[in-house]
Amino acid sequence: MEPPAAPLDTTPDPAIVQPPGASPPVPPRDQQQEQLRIGESGQFSEGLEDRGLLESSTRLKPHEAQSYRKKALWVSWVSIIVTLALAVAAFTVSVMRYSASSFGFAFDATLDVLSSAIVLWRYSNAAAVHSAHREYIACVILGVIFLLSSICIVIKAIHDLAKRVLPEVDDFLYSVSVLSGILCTVLAVIKFMLGKVLTSRALITDGFNSLVGGIMGFSILLSAEVFKHNSSVWFLDGSIGVLIGLTISAYGIKLLIDMVPRVRQTRHYEMFE
């Protein structure tokens, strides 16, 4: 008995229809170009990593890279001056008004001074603007500083919570909070923009630290205002200090996990140092 014939409207099997020895069907031209582009892009990225360069080396012309490098240096100097002044003011508020979040902000401002100094070192050499090895070293140093600072912030905040330290509120505290919140936020936005253009994780990390400083500045104002109207929420100031400390610690750990292996991979590329 013969098998039933296949329906006429079914799609034929290419393996049966194509005669032996014939070339396989050629994919469309657009598909070929897309596959070629993806392959070249992957090989190009691997080539950059093999040469110890950042992605910015392919995006920016030499004069553009140097221009953005100088802008990064200027922003770092301004950040150091501004945050150093804010750190002194915040430490003063912390001692006079027993504010845990003020202490946390002062410590974060000090951290911002150090991180901006590291960015200065990162871009101090004009020939190293695209150096991946120098970039990763800067990030590892930032990660270590973040961890040490977060420990101090959390210990101080927990101590104030345990002792039920009540913050005092006055116009000086408000002025420092508003000024630090605005200035640090503006610095953070500029650093993020430069870091994106230069594909610099160090600059972006410095921007994150400035952003945390801005948030802490406004948090001082928030906790002081809440305590002024409701003294039973005395713990808000210390709780914000703990939260900020844990956030900085998590970022520092993530930074070290990402960057330590990359430092090892690029340790042979010191031609830009």
Write a structural description.
The protein is mostly helical and 273 residues long. Helices cover 75% and strands 0% of the residues.
List its traits.
mainly alpha; 273 residues
Task: Describe the secondary-structure layout.
Elements: H1 14-17, H2 29-50, H3 56-59, H4 62-97, H5 100-122, H6 132-162, H7 171-197, H8 201-229, H9 236-265
Helix pairs in contact: 4-5, 4-7, 5-6, 5-8, 5-9, 6-8, 6-9, 7-8, 8-9
Total of helices: 9
Global morphology: elongated
- H/E order of the elements? HHHHHHHHH
Gyration radius from CA atoms, angstroms? 28 Å
Distance between the termini: 84 Å
- Helix percent reads over 70%
Give a quick rundown of the structure.
By secondary structure, this protein is mostly helical. It is 75% helix and 0% strand.
